[in-house]
Design goal:
Elements lengths: L20 H45 L4 H4 L5 H13 L6 E4 L6 H10 L8 E5 L5 H9 L16 H4 L4 E5 L9 H10 L1 E2 L8 E2 L3 E6 L3 H6 L5 H7 L2 E4 L10 H16 L8 H9 L5 H15 L13 H12 L4 H19 L4 H8 L3 H10 L6
Parallel strand pairs: 1-6, 1-7, 2-3, 3-6
Antiparallel strand pairs: 4-5
Helix pairs in contact: 10-12, 11-13, 15-16
C-alpha cells in the first residue's frame, strides 16, 4: 500500500523448503520499505509538477502586471534619465547593494525592478516593502518572519521577505524611516547573510541582493542620530540618484502621452492626444509630486477632454494653466520664474498641512531640513 492506495505486489518463490515465519517477517519489512520509497517518489513527482505549474502561473502574472520590462517603462530621452539607465546597467550584474535617492514619485521602485530584471537573479523573486508604512513590530515580522507563538496572534510560522527573496532581490523603500532599534538587525542580515525570525532560537541563511531607497538625506539623518552610520555605509555602496521631473522637462510630453494612452485604454475611450499648448503648460509646472503627479493629472485630463478631442490647457487642472500663463506673460529668466513657482508651491503645501513642517515635507518628498531651508529662502511666514 502507498498513501492508502495499492501500489504493487511482491511475488516470492522458493524451491525446496517452505518459507519460515522469519522469512515472512523479513518480506513484510521489505514491502514496507519499498512502499515508502514508492510513496516518496510519487510525492517528489507531484511536487515537481506543482512547482512547474506555479512557475508558469508566476510568469503569466508577471507578464500581466508588468507587460514591458521595467527599464523600457522608464520613458524619456533626457541626458539625466539616460545617465540613470547607464548606471542601472552598470550596477545590475553585481551583488552590490544599491541605494536609490529621489523625491517621492520619481519611480524608485521601477528603478529597483529594472536592476533586478537585468541581473543574474531575475529568475528568482523580487520582494518589496515600504518601511514607512508599517509599525515597528509588523515591519520586523514582515522582513524577518516569525515562529509560531512568538507573540500574541502568531498562530503559525511565517516566512519574512528576506526568505521570500532568497536568491533574488529585496527592495526596501523609504529605508530612512526604519526604526532605529530595528536597524542593527538589518545590518546583521546584510553583513552576515543571515536573519533571525522573531522568536527563533537560531538564524536562517539567506542570499539576497538588497536595493534600498529613500527620499531623505541619510547623511543628515546620521548626523542627527536617527540613522546608524554603519548601516548607512553598508547601504551607500552604489548610490543612484533619480532626478525629479523638473530636471528633465524634455521628457514630460512623452510621459504625458504615454499616461494618456494608458488612461484612455483603461476607461475605454478613444485616445484624445495632447495639444502643443497643453504640452507647454505641462512643461511649465514644477511637478512636486513628480511622475506620479503627472500620471494622475493625465488620468483626470483623459476624463475632462471629450472623446476624440486632444487635451487642451482648459482640460488640465487650474493651477497648471495659471502657471503656464504666468511664465508666458513674464519677462523673467526661466530660473527666476521657476523659483517663484517653487515658492508658490511651498506656500500652498504649507497651508494644506496647517504649516506642519514634518507633514508638509513628507507630502513634498523632501527632508524636513530641506523644507526649513526653502522656507527661509522664500521668506515664508506662518499664517
Amino acid at each position: 500500500m502507498c498513501s492508502g492506495q495499492f501500489a504493487g505486489a511482491i511475488r516470492l518463490s522458493r524451491a525446496g523448503a517452505p518459507f519460515s515465519a522469519a522469512d515472512l517477517e523479513l518480506s513484510a519489512v521489505l514491502a514496507q520499505q519499498l512502499s515508502a520509497v514508492l510513496s516518496a517518489h510519487q510525492l517528489i513527482k507531484r511536487l515537481r509538477e506543482a512547482e512547474a505549474r506555479l512557475q508558469g502561473e508566476r510568469d503569466y502574472l508577471r507578464r500581466r502586471l508588468m507587460p514591458r520590462p521595467a527599464l523600457a517603462n522608464m520613458l524619456g530621452a533626457s541626458p539625466a534619465l539616460s545617465e540613470v539607465k547607464r548606471q542601472i546597467q552598470a550596477a545590475a550584474p553585481a551583488r552590490t547593494t544599491v541605494l536609490i535617492e529621489g523625491e517621492t514619485g520619481t519611480g524608485k521602485e521601477l528603478c529597483a525592478r529594472a536592476i533586478h530584471e537585468i541581473s543574474p537573479r531575475r529568475s528568482a523573486a523580487f520582494a518589496a516593502v515600504n518601511c514607512a508604512s508599517l509599525a515597528r513590530g509588523v515591519l520586523e515580522s514582515e522582513l524577518f518572519g516569525h515562529v509560531k507563538g512568538a507573540f500574541t496572534g502568531a498562530h503559525r510560522e511565517r516566512e519574512g521577505l528576506f526568505a521570500v527573496a532568497d536568491g533574488g532581490t529585496l527592495f526596501l523603500d523609504e529605508v530612512g524611516e526604519m526604526p532605529l532599534d530595528l536597524q542593527p538587525k538589518l545590518l546583521r542580515a546584510i553583513e552576515e547573510g543571515e536573519v533571525w525570525p522573531v522568536g527563533a532560537n537560531r538564524p536562517r541563511r539567506v542570499d539576497v541582493r538588497l536595493v534600498a531607497a529613500t527620499n531623505r538625506d541619510l547623511e543628515a539623518e546620521v548626523r542627527a542620530g536617527r540613522f546608524r552610520r554603519d548601516l548607512w555605509y553598508r547601504l551607500n555602496v552604489f548610490l543612484l540618484r533619480l532626478p525629479p521631473l523638473r530636471e528633465r522637462r524634455e521628457d514630460i510630453p512623452a510621459l504625458a502621452r504615454h499616461f494618456l494612452e494608458e488612461a484612455a485604454t483603461e476607461q475605454g475611450r478613444p485616445h484624445p492626444g495632447l495639444s502643443e499648448p497643453a504640452a507647454e503648460a505641462l512643461r511649465a509646472w514644477g511637478w512636486p509630486g513628480n511622475v506620479r503627479e503627472l500620471k494622475n493629472e493625465m488620468e483626470r485630463a483623459s476624463l475632462m477632454a471629450p472623446p476624440g478631442v486632444p487635451v487642451e490647457p482648459c482640460h488640465l487642472s487650474p493651477h497648471l494653466t495659471v502657471a503656464s500663463e504666468s511664465v508666458a506673460a513674464s519677462e523673467e529668466t526661466l530660473e527666476a520664474a521657476m523659483a517663484r513657482l517653487e515658492g508658490e508651491v511651498l506656500k500652498q503645501a504649507l497651508r494644506r498641512h496647517g504649516f506642519n513642517r514634518t507633514h508638509c515635507a513628507r507630502a513634498l518628498g523632501i527632508s524636513r531640513q530641506a523644507l526649513i531651508a526653502k522656507i527661509a529662502r522664500f521668506h515664508i511666514r506662518e499664517e
